[in-house]
Write a structure and sequence with these properties.
The structure is a single chain. The protein is mainly alpha-helical. The chain has a domain of 66 residues. It is 63% helix and 6% strand. A two-stranded antiparallel sheet has the order 1-2. A hairpin with a 5-residue loop joins strand 1 and strand 2. The chain is globular and about 35 Å long. The protein starts with a helix and ends with a helix.
Length: 106
């Protein structure tokens, strides 16, 4: 099992490097698997569908990265944003938050 995982990790990293350096696409990388599997004894020991899944997972991760999407989101499901309260000067020397003045006006 460890050998299979190591082989998949190695394939993922080499395909990622190939994609970055040569801009190889998903279908071209799937075609490359046939040649790679013939020449590598470790790849021969792993089922072909497992290797194809590695390339598919790489493609999905690559697309999400460049689309700006993350697999993990904040606890609320929306990106984390912060907003400081708006201050406005009220007659006199006191400053109030705009949300406080809206509540007092009601």
């Amino acid at each position: 099992m460890e050998e299979t995982l190591e082989t998949c990790r190695s394939l993922y990293n080499s395909m990622l490097a190939d994609r970055i350096e040569k801009r190889t696409g998903f279908f071209d990388q799937k075609k490359m698997l046939v040649e790679l599997k013939q020449n590598d004894k470790h790849l021969k020991s792993v089922h072909s569908q497992v290797l194809q899944d590695v390339v598919l997972r790489l493609d999905k991760a690559y697309q999400r990265f460049f689309a700006g999407l993350s697999r993990y989101r904040s606890s609320g499901g929306v990106g984390v944003t912060t907003r400081s309260p708006t201050l406005r000067v009220v007659s006199g020397s006191k400053a109030r938050r705009s949300s406080d003045s809206a509540q007092s006006a009601e």
